[in-house]
Amino acid sequence: MTYCVGLLLNEGMVLLADTRTNAGLDNISTYRKMFTFEAPGDRVVAIMTAGSLSVTQTTIARLTEAIETQDESRSIMHAPSMLGVAEIVGTTLGEVTHEVRGKMQRQDSVSASMLVAGQRRDGGMRLFLIYSQGNFIEATAETPYLQIGEHKYGKPILDRVITPETSLADAEKAVLLSMDSTLRSNLSVGMPLDLVVIGNDALEITRARRIEAEDPSFQQMSQAWSEALRRAFQEIDAA
Amino acid sequence: MTYCVGLLLNEGMVLLADTRTNAGLDNISTYRKMFTFEAPGDRVVAIMTAGSLSVTQTTIARLTEAIETQDESRSIMHAPSMLGVAEIVGTTLGEVTHEVRGKMQRQDSVSASMLVAGQRRDGGMRLFLIYSQGNFIEATAETPYLQIGEHKYGKPILDRVITPETSLADAEKAVLLSMDSTLRSNLSVGMPLDLVVIGNDALEITRARRIEAEDPSFQQMSQAWSEALRRAFQEIDAA
Q: Would you call B156 and A220 a contact, using CB atoms and an 8 Å cutoff?
């Protein structure tokens, strides 16, 4: 499994992905699920992936090849807007899913989804969730975050603290705590983590950080959160 | 959907169930999912249900009929031990599931599960999770709680605060907060709630309480928890 989350806030976008991939419980590997594409001043795009690795790797490979060969109709670096970027990613993901399913016995066992976040010059920041078939939905002010993969454990904290007005610093803390709850509850989501922050109108990656398993500040935050939760639990009156 | 949770603690068992049943989004009803059976001094049994209503209702009806007709081989009030109770519930649930599936086109679309908690005179408290096919697992000191239905949203709080040494008062608060997180995140889990506490060696229901949607103490706890979480979030340092 996977857990990826993206927040669309007034100050910018905060994106977080884990890196664990497993084919059965005894075949666990680390694969990057966060991919970034930049032409500073023109556009910045980040893509996070969940689902069958054969589908997501091939999709990212085709998107990368289209950029390298300057295929104007298929390159996300040529698309005129973020909507165009989402459409290219959706079309490519839908095609790859269809091809891979064609090779499988149980057709519905293969699927993948992606979060696409970014901003094009002269446009606003946008955040999309792309489904296996290539269709997609978009984050809005009412629903300022999107998740893919194992999303339930980490949802309550986001529901409680995230609004479009949340600062980037608070947002970073919130996605890390959301991931922390998921890591504790589901073994198939694992460290290290990839965190990316894209400031509004920056048109480039503002901050990218890989957080390793032994990262002392992440461990400290995780422990402080556990203690704060237990303290909060003791403080409140029972119903 | 449904959310039911049972805790097996040194001081006793704490059980909580919601009551929402839906067949599609426009057909929402309230059905009890918590059923208790008592012969004070001899035994106390509580059963919580999740899954297809046609399966769970028929299973509970057959269990009740076997008690009324004093069917010695099928009455959970005659079983010599809690293991025997779990076996009767498992057998009945497995049979009903099989029968209902036989009437359906898509056989695997019908399933149900149950939590069975109780104590027989001269035996310890026991808590079982019964699957559709009738097989079951049991709570232990290492894993002192079991959940059925929509279990993920409410798991992080239980993982953080519940051990066998947790007091009944804290346990009651924990299951209500676990339910509160689930209610916020999943519309198909709904008030009112049924809470049952069975003290160790009490051999009867120690406390049973229905919590209605407008219950002021539940609303107050829910709000205090939200505020405590937000405060805890602000207090801790980012990673």
A: no
pLDDT at residue number B106? 63
Tell me the β-bridge partners of B4.
Answer: B17, B148
Ordered structural domains, chain A, with CATH = 3-235 (3.60.20.10)
- Counting every residue written for chain A, the total comes to 239
Taking the CA of residue A114 and the nearest CA in chain B, the distance in Å comes to 22
Q: How many CA atoms lie within 13 A of B190 on its CB side?
A: 11
Q: Which pLDDT score is estimated for B107? A: 61
Nearest Cα residue in chain B from A174: B233
User: Which residue do the tokens 């890196």 mark?
Assistant: A19
At B123 the three-state DSSP class reads: coil
Any B CB within 8 A of A142 CB: no
CA separation for the pair B139, B162 (Å, rounded): 13
Could you report the per-residue pLDDT of A147-206, keeping only the tens digit for each?
999 999 999 899 989 999 999 999 999 999 999 999 988 888 999 999 999 999 999 999
Q: How far is A237 from chain B (nearest CA, A)?
A: 6
Assess A211–B contact: CB distance below 8 Å, yes or no: yes
Ranges under pLDDT 50 in chain B: none
**What is the band of A105 on the pLDDT scale with cuts at 50, 70, 90?**
confident
Classify the complex by whether its ipTM is higher than 0.85, answering yes or no: no
Question: Residue A221: which of B153, B222, B236 has the nearest Cβ?
Answer: B236
